[in-house]
Amino acid sequence: MTAGADSFQTVRDALAEGAVGSALKLRGWVQKSRSSGGILFLQLRDRTGTIQVTARRNEIGEEKFASAEHVQVEGAVMIEGTVVADPRSKSGREVRARSLDVVHAGDPFPIFLEQTEEFRLDKRHLVIRSPEHVTTFRIKAALLRELRAFLDAEDVLEMTPAILTGNPAEGGAEAFQIDYFGRPGYLSQSAQMYLEALLFPSERVYAITPSFRAEKSRTPRHLTEYQHLEVELAWCSLEQLMGFIERMMVTVLHRLATTLPKELASLGRPPDELLAIQAPFPRITYVEAIDRLSKAGFPVHFGSDLGTAEERALTLEEKSPIFVTHFPAELKAFYMLKSPGDPRTVEAADLLGPEGYGEIIGASARETDVARLIERLKAIGAPVEEYEWYLDLRRHGSVPHAGFGLGIERVVRWMLRREHIRETTPFPRTPSRHTP
Ligand code: 4AD
Ligand code: MG
Can you tell me which atom of ligand 1 is nearest the CA of 191? Predict the structure, then answer.
């Protein structure tokens, strides 16, 4: 029963060119099965795909056939058989079993299509076996891989900053507080401050870490825990950073469209739509955005935040991501550099996903002057002494630099046109749920 791993082939091997006629051994899980007239039809899934397996009573024997008939959806089996052409199946192939061993027949699988969303979230550990989830997580893995490949080619070094911290980077209000041996600790909202420290010896650094936001916002684009890619570049202006972001997005989206076209299409994103995205992306200033929104009937003025509805209106008709730049300083974090030509605004840019999806990247040039940073911290009522170590970075070789944060799940949601961001992550964390 426990044959060595390499004596098994995969569904991919069975579907490969020239495989018809070859003998192989497969093992995996049963997606569905039916028995009719002494023939058992199984849809078998392994990590590489699915294929139909047929097993005849007179070939595999009475006893094995009877036990195979009891295998439930998601039961596990091992088969030996031959690949045959089958024009009726979608793949044009099936495997005709010579022998079939049940590894685990399983209990009746409790997941059906018509169940409520709450029930499906309770059973998330089982629901994630669905073809949609399998494909989504494969694309997400490829996205992470391609981002790393791009950053590596650009000589940006991967770092491993701390997640437990005494400084909530993006404003204490939305940080999860924990008891750190009797002192307050926080779960990281952003690796930015640590990346800024690491930038001085290495100039170009990034990290992919979980970030935590204790936001009660129940929107289809907020998680309380998400994967955050953050990049920090020395000797970099906002303009140069936007160029970097455009190159990164175009390179990665085109790579995904060429390496996973079928997977993207199966989830509602024709790969050609990603291939059509080219740099430079459209750019509008915050002031222009406010102007557009107020003409569209939104009650906005200089200083209004752009929320879900506003970002949706700005991007609904767009096919490409767009940059919104130069936000009012009071809307953005204390570390952002004031615009040289306009003290009311900062050198910040949000990249908004098209088709109504909204913010996927937050970027800015950083304030380099220690006195101005202290002034900004005081203005927002932050405890300056807790930022002493961060202020040190502006006391020893402070140089112009800029960086951004990209929400991995936000990108996947837009790319795969998912209604809710929770479908882009296996165990979504939202205000109402942190289990399973
Ligand atoms: O705009 P944010 O809050 O920026 C920062 O945290 C900066 N310190 C990043 C940096 O410059 N190093 O977050 C960055 C991105 C957003 O654009 C969004 O894509 C994602 O993180 N994000 C979320 N994704 C899912 N759920 C949430 N609750 C998110 N909050 C932010
Ligand atoms: Mg932001």
Answer: 12
